[in-house]
Amino acid sequence: MAEHPAIPNQEHCNRHGRTNGVEEANKQFFNSAGIAEHFSEHPGAVECARRLAAAMLKVYPFAEEESVVMDFACGTGLISRELAPHAKSIVGVDISQNMVDMYNLSVHNQGISPDEMRAVCISAIKEDEEHLQGMTFDVIVVSRGRHVLR
To answer: What is the pTM of this model?
Structure first.
């Protein structure tokens, strides 16, 4: 899948003298007005999430009553929604508070308990005990977040 041309990447940050600025550039972009609110409406976004989740389900033996999943760089939760029927619980993690807010609003609007599915905003790409409350995960999935992995 091609990268979105407006999403900052390492090359973009290097040109602006921010060799370690990918994280901040991504946070700023995804917190920009209108990005999170319309992210799930991008053409093909839902179908892409379905295909990615199907591939993940083929690779890992999810157990509906047991699997605790982290959806890293979860965005608005498109992948999480596809995996939810196959997992005990899913915690989405994203650098963008706006994306997390849209994720949690969608979960709330669907009547899903936060114990089953929720997202947290973690500003640093490292373990965050405050938000993850010592949780352990059976599987961590990453679909469209390669821009935050180094």
So the answer is: 0.79
Contact predicate 106/135, CB 8 Å: no
CB-count burial class (<10 Å; 0-12, 13-18, 19+) for 85 = exposed
pLDDT at residue 101, rounded to an integer: 95
Task: Specify the 3-state DSSP secondary structure of 139.
Answer: strand
* Among candidate residues 5, 11, 13, 7, the one with its CA nearest the CA of residue 30: 7
How far apart (Å, rounded) are the C-alpha atoms in residues 81 and 89? 11
**E strands present in 1-136:** 68-72, 89-94, 117-121
The token pair that represents 107 in the structure block: 């979960």
Residue 150 carries which side chain, given as an amino acid letter? R
**36 within 8 A of 78, measured Cβ to Cβ:** no
d(CA 2, CA 9): 13
Alpha carbons 121 and 98: distance in angstroms, whole number: 9
pLDDT mean by block of 10 residues, the chain; 150 residues = 40 43 80 84 89 95 94 94 96 93 96 95 64 83 70
Q: What pLDDT is recorded for position 119?
A: 96
